[in-house]
Amino acid sequence: MHMNTINKDTTITYLGHATVLIKSPCGKNILIDPWLNTSPVCPADFYVENLIDIVDIVLITHIHNDHIGDLIPLLKGSTKAVAICVPEVHAWLASKGVTRVVEMNMGGSVVPAGTSIKVSMTQAFHTSSFTNDDGTVIHGGLPVGYVLEFENGFTIYDAGDTALFGDMDLIGEYYQPDLAILPIGDHYTMGPRAAARAALMLAVDYVLPIHYGTFPILAGTPEMLEDELGEDSEVQVLPLKPGQSVA
């Protein structure tokens, strides 16, 4: 089911792969997993140099190269962006000279300074590591997801890169998200069938599909997700292309 609006005073822009930019009702910009200049699908309008002065919060689900390829220049060049991540990623960022970091862990919640946005960290089932140019591998602790609760009550769950897992039922019951950002590409994450089940477990009204189409191996599509949900589903899929927004 396609739609053009969510009517929640929140603007969500898909930047390709798993990178999402969210403007909250109070005007704060949240960037999830910044793969920008080095991404083959991110529009140039959203490269680091165009976001560096507007991003307030950067959420890091894990440190695979296709999720944080442009994280360091963004954080080091910004005068205000604060990163949120697990302790192991914090240690890695500190080694790169990044200082504005809120370290937390799964089950915790924080309200970043200067905002009234509640950020909660959830589990995800995946891996997390960064491969340097010389081939050395940095392990980034456990991967995570996030729940964002905005001032007007609108709630978004970003699952990060994950397999389907049973506690999505609990996330749906406890946080009651309105919109879920779910990977659908298959092979490295959930595919459309599992994402459809996740959407039902979470009991969300909207799904933004991510992590598909960047490479041929990521073969899941929003249309497949809609088919798996079925014609009678009340879940509305937001099939945004890189650079497109919904508000």
Radius of gyration: 17 Å
What is the CATH architecture annotation?
Answer: 4-Layer Sandwich
CATH C-level class: Alpha Beta
Question: How are the strands of the biggest sheet laid out side by side?
Answer: 6-5-4-3-2-1-16
The CATH topology label is Metallo-beta-lactamase, Chain A
How many structural units, i.e. domains?
A: 1
Q: Roughly what fraction of the amino acids lie in strands?
A: 15-25%
Helix content: 10-25%
N-to-C order of helices and strands: EEEHEHHEHEEEEEEEHEHEHEE
How far is the N terminus from the C terminus?
16 Å
User: What number is the mean pLDDT?
Assistant: 96
Contiguous runs where pLDDT drops below 50 for at least 5 residues: none
Number of strands: 16
**CATH superfamily placement:** Ribonuclease Z/Hydroxyacylglutathione hydrolase-like
What class would the helix/strand composition place it in? alpha/beta
Shape: globular
Taking the sheet with the most strands, its summary is:
7 strands, mixed
